[in-house]
Amino acid sequence: MRSVPRVGPLAASPTTAPVLDVDGLLDDPETRIIVCCGSGGVGKTTTSASLALRAAERGRKVVVLTIDPARRLAQSMGIDQLDNTPRPVQDVSGGSLDAMMLDMKRTFDEVVLAQASPEKAKQILENPFYIALSSSFAGTQEYMAMEKLGQLHREGGYDLIVVDTPPSRSALDFLDAPDRLSSFLDGRFIRLMLAPARGPAKLMTAGFGIITSALTKILGGQVLTDMQAFVAALDTVFGGFRQRAQQTYALLQAHGTAFLVVAAPEPDALREAAYFVERLSGDRMPLAGLIVNRATTEPPGELSAAGALAAVERLRAADDDGPTAGLLRLHADRARLVEREQQLRDRFSAAHPRVPTAVVPALAGDVHDLDGLREVGRLLAGA
C-alpha cells in the first residue's frame, strides 16, 4: 500500500491518504478471490468485469461470476448470453477470461444430483415444494452464490475468481448463508416434518396428530405431503450443503481473498460503503479497499470556484453577462462539485483511515465493449 499527498481543495493538509494498489492486488499470485460489493448504481458490475479483464491481460486465468441480474456484463464482453456455465471471452491477450451468471435453481439442481443417489435425486427434483424452494425461496440466491463460489474454487480451474455481488446491503447476505441454513434445518418446523421419517412409532402421538391435522387444514393435504416428502428426501443432502457453505465462509475469511467496496462520490453511496466496511471488519473478512467510481474531474486551469464567480460578478457589473460569464459559471459549478466530492471522501477517510482507496474519474459515455472495460481497468490502476 502506497501513500500520496492529498490534492485539490485540501492540498494544504499535511496528512496522506492510503492509495489502493490495484495492479499489486491483481498481480499477487496469492490473491485467489476478489469480491466486489456495494450499493446499486455505483458501477459495481463494470468494476468487476474491468478488474477481471485487467487481471487476465496481465497473465492470469480468471473467471468473473456475476450475481447481478443485469445483462450489462455479457454485453460489454461480447457474449450473447451469460448462464451458469463459464463462457470464454474472446480477444483477451496474456491470460484467459471466462464469464458466467449465477443460475440459482440450476446450481441447486447440480448439488442435489451430485450429493444424492439417482433415485433420491429424481424424487427431490420432481417435488413441487423443492421446485418452489429452489426458484424463489428467500435466501436461496445467497446460499447458491456461496455454493457456486466454493465449487469454482474446489475445481481449481482458475487462479483468480472475481465475484460481482447483488446491489445494496443484500450483497452481504451470502455471509449469513451458513447460519441461515443451519437455523432452517434445525428449526422446530423442519424437525416436525422429519419426525415420522426419523423417529419410532411412539413419536406419532396424539399431540403430533393434532398438529398434523391443523397443518393439513392450513396448507392442504397434498402440500403437507409434498413438504414432508421433500424434507425427508433432502435431509441427508442438506448436511453436505451446510458443511460446504461453512467451508466457503472460511475461504472468504482466509488469506488470498480480497473484498473491494465500490461506491459513488455521493452521501448515500458512501454511507452504504461505510456499512460494508464495518460489517466486513466485524466478520473478520479481508478488506482490500474502497473504489470510488465516477468522480468529477477538476476543470482545466487553476481558477477556483470563488475566483470564477468573482469574475462573473465583474462581468455583470460591466453589463457583460454573455457566453464568457456562462462558461465561468459552469467552471465554478464543476469546481464546487469537485470540492464537495473531496470533502465526502475525506470524511470517509477520517472515519476509516486504514482503508486504501482508488478514485476512478467519470467517463464521457457508457462502457459497452472490451475497450471500455480496459479503460476503466487502466483508471482503476491509476495509470
Automatic annotation (TrEMBL):
Name assigned to this protein: ArsA family ATPase
Q: Which SUPFAM superfamilies match?
A: P-loop containing nucleoside triphosphate hydrolases (SSF52540)
Q: Which organism is it from?
A: Nocardioides panacihumi
Q: Which Gene3D superfamilies does the UniProt entry name for this protein?
A: P-loop containing nucleotide triphosphate hydrolases (3.40.50.300)
* Record-annotated ArsA/GET3 Anion-transporting ATPase-like domain positions: 31-299
